[in-house]
Specification:
The complex is a heterodimer of chains A (about 170) and B (about 450). Chain A has helices at about 10-20, 30-40, 45-55, 60-70, 90-95, 95-105, 150-160; strands at about 80-85, 115, 120-125, 135-140, 140-145. Chain A has 2 domains: about 10-70, Arc Repressor Mutant, subunit A (Orthogonal Bundle); about 80-165, Glutaredoxin. Chain A has about 170 residues and is α+β, with helices and mostly antiparallel strands. A 5-stranded mixed β-sheet of chain A has the order 2-3-1-4-5, with helices on one face. The longest helix of chain B has 19 residues, at about 350-365. In chain B, helix 16 (about 375-385) packs antiparallel against helix 17 (about 395-405). In chain B, about 55% of the residues are buried. Chain B has 3 domains: about 20-230, NADH-ubiquinone oxidoreductase 51kDa subunit (Rossmann fold, 3-Layer(aba) Sandwich), CATH 3.40.50; about 235-325, Ubiquitin-like (UB roll), CATH 3.10.20.600; about 330-420, Up-down Bundle (de novo design (two linked rop proteins)). In chain B, the strands form 3 sheets. A 5-stranded mixed β-sheet of chain B has the order 8-7-11-9-10, covered by helices on one side. Chain B has helices spanning about 20-25, 30-35, 40-50, 60-65, 90-95, 100-115, 125-140, 150-155, 175-185, 210-225, 225-230, 265-270, 305-310, 330-345, 350-365, 375-385, 395-405, 410-425, 440-445, and strands at about 75-80, 115-120, 160-165, 205-210, 235, 235-240, 240-245, 255-260, 280-285, 295, 320-325. Classes of the chains: A alpha+beta (about 170), B alpha/beta (about 450). The interface between A and B is large, with 61 and 69 residues.
Chain lengths: ~170, ~450
């Protein structure tokens, strides 16, 4: 896994942390917001990140760890484009299988896998609230709905030249 | 079908913009509420008969009345936009198309209960919708409708701050006490009740948690009055409601109508019926945690708490999932079981272990390794989860299994036999549940 070495918040980030803190009576409540900020900047939360965030908010690393391990979004694979395919009931009834098959066809990977160049990762997801516009997938939290094989192929084509494979770390999300 | 004019999601273009919202009477309802005493606002909401739209259908006015009027402690409102129940996609529509209605509802609720801070808890994956709400909040701030400037704008002593709190991908955070722990930055295990949130909620202070759609109904009640509201839809659960219709229908989507609509009316008239004119095998009327109904038993059934209770069902989030005659029920049930296993927080043993057992037994049946006795085993495991957990996820996981087996027993038995035959002849076994592909979180963390 390539992780950017510069996993240190900039003054702008620290100002954003301060903004988050102001919303709550305790520093601990700012934790999720800060973790979101961190993942957006540097990718999945690492042990180093846990220590860093704990220090920033005056918490113990255990406080942070107990929250980090609970949530799915702090552990997205370190790919440039994180593709989530909802396979829950409504999407399943309306073609989630087609979405996975098309992605396998185009990218050569299935759920839980990342392309060798680190550009795409595919994961099965729980219901993402697109039941009326099934089937769907999201790319870095951006929703693509009412999918057809052609729409999926066109989407992947659009994403492909986005950036060199090793550039995901430096604030690409 | 009677003509109905939507009030939660009216057909007004760009209503999400504050100028358009104001041009359509926006932020006039909070002015009206300020002319009423807080107690009068609560009485009005009580009289309207509004019941929560997040799944439990608890009377909203009654919930508000539990908040202590006199207290030295700060009071909080949490708006639940963690919409994660499979089949539910309605709150998203309000966040996107009418966010100022939600904000105005929060102002009125805040005034009624004397609340100084509100958090809108938006599921992490709704990043785009969190941005939409943030934008609406910024507009409202600029106009002086939120925060300290409210005092000038409305000429009152009352002010409230509203913040967005984003989740990070955990279904359990839609449970109100889990949601509060999530906001506090703790591991979001549900809390034991009592004490109830109105006594000890966020940071031990009096707190009310309401669903997005529930709050969006409040300005409508203030504008049109409790009597009008109570006259709309079903007597014991009145008002407008957002029906989410998905699965095997020609026109899936979110539709606003009065409560108490016929299921058949919603499926055939509103959502255009089943593709290919097929018959309906099963309908889940309220999100996957509600007991399913047989397709041949939906005639005459209405979508409201009391009517659905009478047929052994619940309204949940009023999210109908329609499945046609060709649907593989074992496959659907396995996927549902996999969901609750994945989303069980792990705090209570019956749920943590039982959800996994149910999923494994169902997978075994799907793979052709099970036997008819497994259906009874599933019912037994479900029965040992139900009622034995801190929160309602236990029931949410147990009910679909228990009731699908109860209501489709012969079909499932037949299915099990067929799958077993397939196995013995070396036929293909295909599953999409994908549990094997999930990577345990611990192995995803980078080592120091």
């Amino acid at each position: 896994m390539t992780v950017s070495n510069e996993t240190v918040f900039t003054p702008e980030d620290l100002a954003a942390v301060e903004e988050i803190r102001k919303r709550y009576p305790t520093a601990q409540a700012a934790l999720m917001g800060v973790l979101h900020l961190y993942t957006r900047r540097f990718g999945p939360i690492t042990e180093k990140a846990i220590r860093h965030v704990a220090e920033l908010l005056g918490l113990t690393p255990e406080d942070v760890l107990s929250v980090v391990t609970f949530y799915e979004m702090y552990h997205r694979p370190p790919a440039r484009w994180n593709i989530l395919v909802c396979t829950n009931v409504s999407c399943r009834l309306c073609g989630a299988g087609m979405v996975l098959e098309t992605l396998r066809d185009v990218l050569g990977i299935g759920p839980g896998e990342t392309t060798p160049d680190g550009l795409f990762a595919v994961q099965e997801a729980e219901c993402l609230g697109s039941c009326g516009t099934a089937p769907m997938l999201s790319v870095n939290e951006e929703y693509h709905e009412r999918l057809t094989p052609d729409a999926i192929r066109a989407l992947i084509e659009r994403l492909k030249p986005a950036s060199p494979p090793d550039a995901w770390g430096g604030g690409s999300r | 079908m009677e003509r109905y004019e939507p009030v939660l999601l009216p057909a007004v273009e760009n209503l999400h913009r504050i100028d358009i919202y104001e041009a359509h009477g926006g932020y006039e309802r909070i002015r009206k509420a300020f002319t009423m005493s807080p107690a009068k606002v609560i009485a009005e909401v009580k009289a309207s008969g509004l019941r929560g739209r997040g799944g439990a259908a608890f009377p909203t006015g009654l919930k508000w009345s539990f908040m202590p009027a006199e207290t030295d402690r700060p009071k909080y409102l949490c708006v639940n936009a963690d919409e994660s129940e499979p089949g539910s996609f309605k709150d998203r529509q309000i966040l996107e198309r009418n966010p100022h209605l939600l904000i105005e509802g929060i102002l009125i609720a805040g005034w009624a209960m004397g609340i100084g801070t509100a958090y809108i808890y938006i599921r992490g994956e709704y990043e785009s919708w969190a941005r939409m709400v943030e934008r609406a909040l910024a507009e409202a701030h600029e106009r002086g409708y939120i925060g300290a400037r409210m005092r000038e704008t409305f000429g009152t002593d009352y002010a409230i701050d509203i913040h967005v709190h984003r989740g990070a991908g955990a279904y359990i955070c839609g449970e109100e006490s889990s949601l509060m722990n999530s906001i506090e930055g703790l591991r979001p295990y549900p809390r034991i009740k009592p004490p109830f949130p109105a006594q000890r909620g966020l940071w031990g202070c009096p707190t009310t948690i309401n669903n997005v759609e529930t709050i969006a109904n409040v300005p409508v009640i203030i504008e049109r009055g409790a009597a009008w509201y109570a006259s709309v839809g079903a007597e014991k659960q009145p008002g407008p409601i957002l029906y989410g219709i998905s699965g095997h229908v020609n026109r899936p989507g979110v539709y606003e109508f009065p409560t108490g609509m016929l299921l058949t009316e919603l499926i055939y008239d509103v959502a255009g019926g089943v593709p290919g004119g097929k018959c309906i095998k099963m309908v889940i009327p309220g999100g996957t945690s509600m007991p399913p109904l047989r397709g041949d038993r939906i005639e005459g059934v209405r979508m409201d708490v009391e009517s659905l209770k009478a047929v052994g069902c619940g309204i949940g989030t009023a999210s109908l999932i329609v499945m046609d005659e060709d649907t593989d029920l074992l496959d659907v049930l396995t996927r549902i079981a996999s969901f609750y296993w994945n989303e069980s927080c792990g705090q209570c043993t019956p749920c943590r272990e039982g959800t996994g057992w149910m999923f494994k037994i169902l997978q075994r049946l799907q793979g052709g390794d099970g036997g008819p006795g497994d259906l009874d085993l599933l019912v037994s495991v479900a029965g040992n989860i139900e009622g034995n957990t801190v929160c309602a996820l236990g029931e949410a996981a147990a009910w679909p299994v228990k009731y699908t087996i109860e209501r489709f027993r012969s079909e499932l038995e037949e299915h099990v036999r067929r799958h077993a035959t397939k196995r013995s002849t070396g036929g293909p076994i295909r599953t999409l549940a994908g549990s094997e592909t999930r990577i345990p979180i611990s192995s995803q963390r980078e080592n120091p």
